[in-house]
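=== Structure Prediction Worksheet ===
Name of assembly: unnamed complex
Input type: mixed (protein and possibly other molecules)
Chain count: four
Listed entries:
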Amino acid sequence: MKPVKRTRKYPSKKTTQPAETKQRPATLVDVARLAGVVPMTASRAINGSGYASEEVRERVLKVARQLHYRPNVLARQLKGQRLNAVGILLPDIANPFSSELLRGIKEVLVKAGYTAFVATADRSIDQERSALQAFVDHRIDGLLVATRGTQLGDEALREITRRGVPLVTIGRPVKIPAVDWITADHWRGAYDVVSHLIQLGHKRIGFIGLSEGPDRSPRRYEGYCAALRDAGLGVVAEYAVGSVVAPAFATEQDGYEGMMTLAKLKRPPTAVFARNDFAAIGALRAAHTLGLKIPQQMAIAGFDDIPVATYTVPPLTTVRQPIAEQGREAAKLLIGRIEKTQPGKAKHICMDCRLIVRESTDPKAVHTHERV
Amino acid sequence: MKPVKRTRKYPSKKTTQPAETKQRPATLVDVARLAGVVPMTASRAINGSGYASEEVRERVLKVARQLHYRPNVLARQLKGQRLNAVGILLPDIANPFSSELLRGIKEVLVKAGYTAFVATADRSIDQERSALQAFVDHRIDGLLVATRGTQLGDEALREITRRGVPLVTIGRPVKIPAVDWITADHWRGAYDVVSHLIQLGHKRIGFIGLSEGPDRSPRRYEGYCAALRDAGLGVVAEYAVGSVVAPAFATEQDGYEGMMTLAKLKRPPTAVFARNDFAAIGALRAAHTLGLKIPQQMAIAGFDDIPVATYTVPPLTTVRQPIAEQGREAAKLLIGRIEKTQPGKAKHICMDCRLIVRESTDPKAVHTHERV
DNA sequence: CTGTTAGCGCGTTCAG
DNA sequence: CTGAACGCGCTAACAG
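=== Predicted Assembly ===
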């Protein structure tokens, strides 16, 4: 027979606490005792699982509220339950693409009761790997990955699927059996915008933002080449200038310097397609500096249709991809995998882009700020 | 006496697994058994805590590697250890401010061995609350909050400190005893840029992006008013136009419409200070549309010095705040609290902003793209 | 230096 | 409908 009444055991090292400073969070045991039931009953009442009399349920819930009780999700996970949290790996945060994508993802995710934790890779393989590892270590239920594809990155993803963690990539077609992916047709988008320039009569068209390195083939650049070839125009090597700052990305500075480089050629291009809108804005700036009339002497087009693209001088012709929609679809796919409602072979989805013609290429374009 | 040899117990419902599909992650028990030691010993070897003979340590580590063993951080946390993860709550992700801030934060955090999980509030109180709750539920070690201040938000933060979670806010001075905060001097920054406009001879100066609602007083607007008053210029109510889209923020559209509104006045301003650079870019666009010469007929200044500000036509005068540095300092403060190396009263830090004069206000400004 | 015991907070399982 | 026992994976505390 035990001589002492068994009360809640505190960590042995600090039997007394500084009173109000660090209130130990209430546990199910606390709630149960105060409600005069056994923990299991409290659990049932709170989770609505199993049966519990109306009277008991109310009493338990009342005590729980009053104690500010919150279930310990970590302990739950330890028992094999889901955390209802998914990890989202983004290339960076500065990009309007990331922002819009996250908006789409969260729209679906929160509605389904999941929490979204975001990490950024900042275009570093190391950071990408450690972020992925952190997500897995924290036992998130699934993973959405929107970083640019690399050899090592793909290997890390494969490793994750081996652990059985559901995974969907966005804008990154990947050859891993269990992985769904969703992307926009960048190749086609580039093809369309370059064809548009050709239709306007341009024969010499430059490309800004060609990245080097061992990454997978840049779809936007390839679309550009294809459009030129299909129109019977050759691909001139010196018309494609690279991005200096970061691989697989291009900044305003890249655009500025790229345009400066192209303008110095003996026969400079009369039109330029920039890999993204940031670079296009830099190119725009350079053209102004050089005193070139846009679009008469120099037509400029970008890609992505970021919000400022409507507000540049002149407004920017660009290609819009359905960003939020990709996010929404990706989230749906992931949830399907997590909840096993959508089993079977990996799904691959490719969405169409849309050419947005503004005054930076076409003087007759109607100038409006509405984003249709 | 037990008749059966006790082996690893699998969940009773699925005694067999689909072989290679969903490899159950190795646990410490698995490692220990394969290494021929008891779990506790394996733990010591892996964590370097306590003593372990060189020979045992090596054997255990080898097995751990070979089994792809990863400690279960959730189980650890359950035993009262830290997760080595902090939560970062950002207002949104589109803003270059967020991006730069996160860069600064992570710089310090990863060096100290912490993982950074990000959540966004998207300027919704509900999302803010649920994100905070999620972080706390997941037992992160500390919290960095950079959302705009609101009544309800502050209450949620107070609740969190009651739970004993270390908390540091950024750009959000807050009156909670245990909370450190760090901010830039927005008031002074606004005061300086408006004084600059006054020195250039402007007498009628507008403000774009005044937000309404119950939020705390907008420091940038107040700095604007103070500069006018100190120069003996009155504050004209109709010179301050609001932001339409979202409270506590302003977009290109707000800037565009604001400028249009101001230009229609009988005696329109000759200079405009926009609450942030996005709004300033919209105003710039409107001024172009109206055929106003910048800065001769209309001077325009912004706030934040976002990257595009150097590439607008003309380049934008603005105020730069030390964003990354705020992030770094905030992270240091938080780590100090988490690791209890920095106890004591709450610290409050206020950093200086810097006026960046470009051609949108001063025709004599030197045009350069270097971001000094 | 290594093994044993116990328990973190919760939910599954089986008995009342 | 409710209660008791057990274990998820890990480590503090205390033996050996």
